[in-house]
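Hey team,

Filing this mostly as a record. A colleague (T.K.) asked me to run one chain through the structure pipeline before their review meeting, and I want the input and output archived in the tracker in case anyone asks later how it was produced. No errors, nothing strange. Just documentation.

Input sequence:
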Amino acid sequence: MTVQDPASVQETTADDADKTRYAVKATKQQSPITTSLKADVVDGMLIKQRYLLESKIGSGGMSDIYRATDTFLQKAGVADYTVAIKVLQPQYVNQPEALQLLLQEAHKTQQLSHPNIVRVFDVDSDQQHHFIVMEFLDGESLEQVIKRYKPKGLPLKSACNLLQQIADALNFAHQIGIVHADLKPANIMVNRAGVVKVLDFGVSQTLQLNHDIYAAEQQSQTAPLSGYTPAYASPQLLAGNTPCVADDLFSFACLSYELLTSKHPFERLPADKAAAQNKQAMKPAHINLLQWQALKRALQFDTKLRNTSITELMQRFTQQLWQPVAVAATVIMFAWGGWHYYQQQQSVVKQFEQKTALLDAQQQQFQRLFEASPAEVLAAVSESPDRAIPHEALLRLQQERILNHFEQQVDQLLSDRSFTYPNYPEIERILAQATTLYPDSHHLAELSNNMQRSKQTAIEVLRARLNQLLVNQQYQAQSDAPDPFTVHAELQRIDGRYKIIPDTAESDAYISAFNDAVATNNAQALQQLIKVGQLLFAGSELTAPLVEQGQQLAAAVDAMTQYQQSVAAGNDAEFPYQAAEVFYQHSFSLLENELGASIKAADVDTVYDKLQQYNSLVPADFSLHVSLRRKLADKYLSLSGELLQSNQVRTAERLMRRANELMSSIAS
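Output structure:
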């Protein structure tokens, strides 16, 4: 609550503008506040041996509000025994004005017996606890309703359902001479049945003596008091004039605009400041021009221009567009006889007719979509570039059906047995679309979390299976069993962004298998290792050099694999000399290095024996084989000469015979 001396001028912030502000007219000085309560008001306290306080549910300027049980009604077997207790705060107990305000509020509200005004049952005191017993409202404030429908506001029909009830309450109060003067969304409740209740009658022209950090210091606590909220008060109230029906009309127009747009008409500026800055409210998107003219008239800063009523405004809101159009057209036709002017008026009528036709078309489309299937509604929404208001209303009205539609799509994907695991990317796409339409759905959030957990479990199972295959060096593609290629494909199908990073054991196994295949010239094994390496091991620092080596050998390995498979099948195949040079280069280089390091005849014989193993693998004219035989012959001749010098004639002769054998094979 904010306290203000009308003679002073203070800046008003956006937050401050939404708080009830009170004007104080100075009178005699009030004596200091003193309290002497016997006990503090706490949850579980029994007041007047009847009302059991359950929990504190709110605070006003000078009162705290509790949910309570009427034990008398409860014992009597009455079903509705929950009430709200409004208790005067301790610091105001000894202030006669505060108690008078509490009594005045109870008295005025008891006068207002209306379905849309909160009921007051009793006012009493117990051990200096002064309190009002009121109807308990289970629902939400109009302020919360407005926030829930941001940023587009409520559809006109839904807004009118709430506004009509507020209008009925205000008109009833005006009829018996009471002006609310502090009408705002926070003072209006909507219960679970959609029934509106207007609160805080009776305090509209009195001050709740509660200090506020935004307020000027109080000058008097016994002064005549009046209350208003700057963001919803008319300029006349802000100027300190006596509240009247026109002030309630202005406040009603402000909250009507806010219901329809989720925005304050003047950006939450007090009306006097908005008028000084020449602020103009923009037309709400989903009311017609005649309805806007009526609302704009009710929002006028000048009382003389605000020449309408709450009843007239509601009649305009609920009136069909064709009725005023027909009246306007009739008046135009009979009021003016000139043909030229008649043509001008016909243009106006045509514009009205076009607007009427447009509204009719929109209404028909809305009705058609309301009766359409969820798939058709979703298609219509996706085709709309900006999710128009009727679509927002359709989505809310058909929320349960549309959510069931999305859930059925997910269930179909989960039950699809075409693959081992569900199509999680498609499920995520469906849930993302649903969440975009219903971001506040707890059911969707829970469903999405369950899908994420299921997806993560599937990834962990497949990754463990892949680890087992890689560690056991099972790189071959299988037609009837899992292999690295099929497991990788499943992982990518589940999550295309999932990256496989081999661990140390997987990398060590790959390195060992690759080196063994190279050492044994196993082309078929190398072929699979190259494919697996490119698929899984290219990004690992440990295996990247081998993968690169494999890519350089790939063409040669493929050619040698094809040759070996053809020979194994008993077919005549042409030896791939060029590919073989690349494929066998490493093995023959190792033999040449071993030969170069040989000193004794036995070492040279070892190289000779190893070379003989290639006789069945490569032709005699294979260049690497021919070159190594020549080098072996030269080595044998060199050693035999050394042995002759040391009189080892028999060994020297054996080496010379082997050298001649090698040279003869080359010559042939």
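Quick notes for T.K.: The two ends are 115 Å apart (CA to CA). The longest strand covers residues 51-59.
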